[in-house]
Amino acid sequence: xxxxxxxxxxxxxxxxxxxxxxxxxxxxxxxxxxxxxxxxxxxxxxxxxxxxxxxxxxxxxxxxxxxxxxxxxxxxxxxxxxxxxxxxxxxxxxxxxxxxxxxxxxxxxxxxxxxxxxxxxxxxxxxxxxxxxxxxxxxxxxxxxxxxxxxxxxxxxxxxxxxxxxxxxxxxxxxxxxxxxxxxxxxxxxxxxxxxxxxxxxxxxxxxxxxxxxxxxxxxxxxxx
Length: 225
Description:
- By secondary structure, the protein is α/β, with parallel strands linked by helices.
- It folds into two domains: 2-113, Response regulator (Rossmann fold, 3-Layer(aba) Sandwich); 123-221, Arc Repressor Mutant, subunit A, CATH 1.10.10.
- The protein is built from eight helices and 14 strands.
- The strands form four sheets. A five-stranded parallel β-sheet has the order 2-1-3-6-7, sandwiched between helices. A four-stranded antiparallel β-sheet has the order 8-9-10-11, with helices on one face.
- α1 (10-22) links the parallel β1 (2-6) and β2 (26-30).
- α3 (59-67) runs parallel beside α4 (83-92) and α5 packs across α6.
- The protein is elongated.
- Residues 2-115 form the Response regulatory domain.
- Residues 123-223 form the OmpR/PhoB-type domain.
- Pfam families: Response_reg, Trans_reg_C.
- One of its GO terms (molecular function) is phosphorelay response regulator activity.
- Residues 123-223 bind DNA.
């Protein structure tokens, strides 16, 4: 993927660039709003966006991307004290947010999930063993039989499959499930409840028990024994 990193902290920007480059992505880094706006014509797949830039608010990037109809995903990289800006960014059309400080593995998981949402539309399907998912229809099948999931359960399943064989932290899962601005504050109990219900429905439909609890950390979606 071609990724634009908009971050004015040189050390963080360099760390993100090095990590994503090692994952096979092509990255460009800018540290100002003006530079970011000029770079947007470069057909980037995803923009990683810090909101607090030295020459302006990163939300201007969101406005240009979404207002111009660009098929570019945006993940906001935000400090903990920027809740208002995060809400505004999501309302304007940003796809996700990640709270600083963050782990590179978590950032990579968010990227993979966003790519799934961007690229698996319409009639395209995601397959995992006996599972078939049609994102454009919010449809899930187990052995060709439909499974009735809530929107949150559906999003959670896609998030797990997009990051299969990776350990996902409870914090990361909570932030992903809270990407709609009205849902801030997902607790561990709510996360557990959604995962429990999703697992129960899938197993009842004849699906393998792929959602594994990683004690003290979070969960992993895997068919490994």
